[in-house]
Design a protein that fits this description.
Blueprint lengths: L1 H25 L2 H9 L12 H14 L5 H14 L5 E8 L5 E9 L2 E4 L8 E7 L1
Antiparallel strand pairs: 1-2, 1-4, 2-3
Helix pairs in contact: 1-3, 1-4, 3-4
């Protein structure tokens, strides 16, 4: 039963990740955010928890090779939003080798980092968006 739940969550995460990747190619972040905050809540007997969302998006990311950090954050935000959980999407920048500007996005919910990994401490926050 648990394995079935994990697979279902990974499948939903995969759908949201593919949709997020496509949306980022067509629309601006502002347009995507407007659509995201309009997502209706879905009432389920056992809503997805933050840790389950993290695992589901990680599994989906293994299938969608090259998925951007922003697409992963948006996909996780969609999963959590549908279940009635608030989250915060953060965009940050830092200088890399050769003074190259590098951007990164991550999502947090319930005091937990859902996407983006732990390497965000070097980034200067440009945008922190409550979703």
């Amino acid at each position: 039963m648990r394995r079935r739940r994990e697979l279902a969550q990974a499948g939903r995460a995969l759908g949201w990740l593919i949709l997020a990747q496509l949306a980022l190619r067509v629309w601006s972040y502002i347009a995507i955010r407007r659509a995201l905050v309009r997502l209706p809540y879905r009432s389920t007997a056992s809503p997805i928890a933050a840790v389950e969302c993290e695992q589901a998006v990680r599994r989906a990311g293994r299938i969608v090779r090259g998925a951007s950090c922003l697409a992963c954050a948006i996909a996780a935000a969609c999963l959590l939003r549908r279940e009635g959980h608030d989250s915060t999407l953060t965009l940050g920048v830092r200088f890399g080798p050769g003074h190259r500007l590098l951007a990164h996005a991550w999502l947090e919910s319930g005091g937990r980092r859902i996407t983006g990994g732990p390497e965000t401490s070097e980034h200067r926050v440009l945008l922190r968006d409550m979703i």
